[in-house]
Every structure is written in C-alpha cells, then in structure tokens.
C-alpha cells in the first residue's frame, strides 16, 4: 500500500505543546489489511472502534458506508464525551457505555454501543490497547476478531485499506456503482497525484488546521492556523468554481472529498464557535456549500455520523460543559445539508 498518512513532525513536541501548540501524535499500529499475511481480507472478520464526534473516525465510518461494508465490517461506537476525573480506571478516555446520559439531550444516545469485538467486554478503548501492551488510547481502531489483535489505528491508512479490499471484505455495492476512492493503474497516475496533493493541502490547512486553531493556547499560533484554514477554504472554493466541477478532482467522488467532508460537516454547527473559526461559514462559500450538500446526499453519507455526538463531544468537555443549541438560521443542521440553494 502506498503511503497515505500525512504525519506532523514530532520534533520538540513536548516543548511545542508547552508553548501552547497542538501537536498531533503518531499512530503505532500500521499493519496493512490484505497485504500482511496475518490479516487477510475476509468478510465478517474485522471490526471498527470509533467515536462519531471524532473527525478522524468520521473518515473511517464514511468509507465503511460509501463502500457498502456496513454488513461485513462490524462497529462499536463510543460515547462522545470522555471519562471524567472520577473514572475508576482513567480519566479523559473513550468509553463504550450505551447507558451514559448526554447532557445535550438528557437521554442516552441510541448510536452508542458496548464493546462487542474482543470477548472481554472492555469499557474503555484504552483497555483494548492495554491487552496488546500498548500505552495508546485513541480511536479509530481496526480490529481483527479472529486473532484478537489491532490491525491499524491510523485513519488515513484504514480508509485506503477498506477501499482497496472492499470487494474481498464483502461490499454490498456492485463494483460498477461503488466509489473508487484511490484508483490504481497507469491511466490514473495523474488522478492519484491530484488526490495526494489535495490530501496534503486539506490535512495541513483544514483537518489538522482546525485543531491547531481550536486547541491552541497561544494567540500567534492560533492566528497562523486561523489564516491558513480560511486561505485553504478559499483555494478549494476557487478550484470548484473554475469549471463548476462536482467534486474536488472532477466528476468522481474520491479520497480527497472523503477526507475534506468530516471537517466541513462540523464547521458551521460546531467549529465556528468551538474551534474559534468564526471567519466565515461554509454557507458563505457557494461552491463549497453545494459540494458539501452534494456529498451529504451520496448513499450512506448521512447515516455515517451524528451532529448530536459532535456537539456533545466538543462542547461537553470545554468551558462549563454547556452545549450550544444553535445554529437554527437559516435552518437547523444537518437538515441544512439537504438544501444546496441556501449557499449565498
């Protein structure tokens, strides 16, 4: 598998974090499903551990949905807020607890599940890593139910694997209808180069850029990330507007679109406030807004995530833990994503 993850430099990471910069870590499990002999591509063997509020997990749930793998790759969903300081095992950890009450709704969240893949009924994602002697604690996790081992925990690599092995994993979407997220072969060399360039631009400016802005405690670092974020949005708007193309690379939905969608899906209802990215809404970029609505209507996309989880997860662990109820103008989200005409 060609290298697909774009990783942030870890040089002087502790010092940079101490100076107020958000520095994303590097995932440790990097086996390649279908290429590693320990992990052949088979239906009903693999499992995903995710949290819907996490945009890196959203990449993976989105790929699972659009590739038609919902029936053959099982999935557990964590509660969107991490554990508290009084947790008997560890605070600030992803928890599989379907009985937990969301402060936003006053009820349980129907998408949340217990842990069902390891046979151990673990409550925390951290315990899945502990069983392999790892001190990691992140999601997503691609897990092998046959050997009870973690395959991979780097989202960019997981989506590339699911795409490459969709048929062997048991996709329910016909080959001629299933998106080809990263087309192989000599005739697609230029397309892959375009996807790679877009992936790098989107990761630095948008995906990781949102976190650089929102989780920075230094004004200058925040300002740099804020500027880069909106400069990248403007560049993508110009790209779509140049020939009114439906997707970032042309007529087909590819990995570049998939990797942009989770951040833009969250921007207006969550990141505009929580990540301090209040320079503009996606609604203010007409071509990007229509692109966002177009992707949202693709089969499987709307059901691949939940803005209730996003709101609960981001605001439920910030400030005073009160979750904003808006926006409701021009209409509530995610319903707005079914109305491309709302874009100015």
Q: What is the class of the largest domain in the CATH system?
A: Mainly Alpha
Helix-strand category: mainly alpha
- Using the alpha-carbon principal axes, give the shape: globular
How many beta-strand segments? 4
Report the sheet with the most strands, covering strand number, pairing sense and barrel closure. 4 strands, mixed
The percentage helix is 25-40%
- The low-confidence parts are none
Count up the helices: 10
Strand content: under 5%
What is the chain-wise order of helices and strands? Answer: HEHEHEEHHHHHHH
Q: Report how far the terminal alpha carbons are from each other.
A: 41 Å
Give a short summary of the structure.
The protein is mainly alpha-helical and 344 residues long. Helix content is 38%, strand content 5%.
Word description of this protein:
There is one protein chain. By secondary structure, the protein is mainly alpha-helical. It is globular and about 50 Å long. It has 2 domains: 29-169, 3-Layer(aba) Sandwich (Glutaredoxin), CATH 3.40.30.10; 186-342, Glutathione S-transferase Yfyf (Class Pi), Chain A, domain 2 (Up-down Bundle), CATH 1.20.1050.10. The protein has helices spanning 13-18, 55-66, 125-130, 155-164, 166-169, 189-214, 219-243, 255-274, 286-296, 307-315, and strands at residues 46-50, 74-77, 141-144, 149-152. Helix 2 (55-66) runs parallel beside helix 4, helix 2 packs antiparallel against helix 8 (255-274) and helix 8 packs across helix 10 (307-315). It has 10 helices and 4 strands. Strands 2-1-3-4 form a 4-stranded mixed sheet.
